[in-house]
Amino acid sequence: MPRISAVIITSVLAITLAGCSSSATPEIQAFDGLAKACETYKGGAEIDAVKVTAAENTVPTVEFATAAAGGTVKSKLAAIKSSQTKVIREGNGPTFTGNELVKIDYVVFSSTTGQQLAANKFDGSDSASQVFNSTDSKAYCDALSAVRQGSVVAFALPASDADPEGSLFVLQLRKVYLPHANGSVNPPESGLPSVVLAPKTKQPGILQPTFAAPKDFKKATLITGKGEKVKIGDSITVHYTGWVWSEAIGEPFDSSWIQRDAQTPISPATFTLTEENLIKGFVKALEGATVGSQVIASMPPADAYGETGQDSIAENATLIFVIDVLGINK
User: For the chain, is the Cβ count within 10 Å smaller at the N or the C terminus?
Assistant: First the structure.
């Protein structure tokens, strides 16, 4: 009898765990296996003492023990030595792990006086897009790491020379995007250049092919993501790099992986997938791809910039694009 009971319990556990796994939405499954890029958020007595009132689609308000601006006595919240976070209302979407683009609603307060310093409407109509990474914005990245999409969260950053009163943020993570393609890796496709990935960032590059460009459009899925399928007309967020196919392929002519200026972090691009907005080959490459996928495509002139070319792209040029599908905007 004990042996039979053990077998039954094991079977029930297996069925239960399988059911839990399959119940995850494609949006969540697309993030499976992502490595954490920032330190998981930490709480604290000072942030726990902050009362946050956060009604749906309404700018949150806060209550905590404050102090006078410029005074010798600091509020306890402004005197913290490292960031503190607490989740006010937990969402059920993917988890932020760092080095990711997010859409947020926000309100910011002085940790000393409690004065509101900035806010948006907090109803999803004017959400801000921001990349929080492990270098340029590490304090914010650490404060949000392990928070789920949809959550309302409060976090405080310590006072500093640049911010002598300290700051208290209340955010809602409206959307979390993948940092790069994520999924199962497929064998290389013949007739297309080989792709290599940077070990840390997963930014793609290509190796010089020893064969001629295909005369017709050709694409392959290098990484198959577990997310939803992209359809014509969808607003999508992607990382992409484009090269002109030649006997000596040089630097890309365009890439979302390249930092535009010192003040702006590397950030993905957002497009509506239609031929009114994009070249035909880009649309053909992404239609039907799943979120998390990486696609490579060779685009002959008819699917690119044709007989006229554009900017640095000569007439009748064949293009190569490598595209990571990071999310669908709904």
Answer: N
pLDDT per position as a tens digit, 5-36: 444 334 433 434 444 445 799 999 999 999 99
Measured between alpha carbons, how far is 106 from 315 in angstroms, rounded to an integer? 47
- Single out the residue of 323, 119, 147 nearest to residue 236, CA to CA: 323
Residue 41 phi, psi dihedral angles, 5° rounding = -60, 155
Token digits for 288? 């039907």
Query: Are residues 188 and 218 in contact, defined by beta-carbon separation less than 8 angstroms?
Result: no
Q: Residue range 85-98: average pLDDT?
A: 98
What pTM, to 2 d.p., does this model score?
0.91
Distance (Å, whole) CA 156 – CA 177: 24
Going along the chain from its start, the domains and CATH numbers come out as 45-176 (3.10.50.40), 184-329 (3.10.50.40)
**Distance of alpha carbon 218 from alpha carbon 300, whole angstroms:** 9
User: Phi/psi at 286 (nearest 5 deg)?
Assistant: -100, -20
Contact 30, 183 (CB under 8 A): yes
The model's pLDDT over 208-260, given as tens digits with 9 standing for 90+, comes to 999 999 999 999 999 999 999 999 999 999 999 999 999 999 999 999 999 88
CA–CA separation, 154 and 88 (whole Å): 7
Amino acid at 36: K
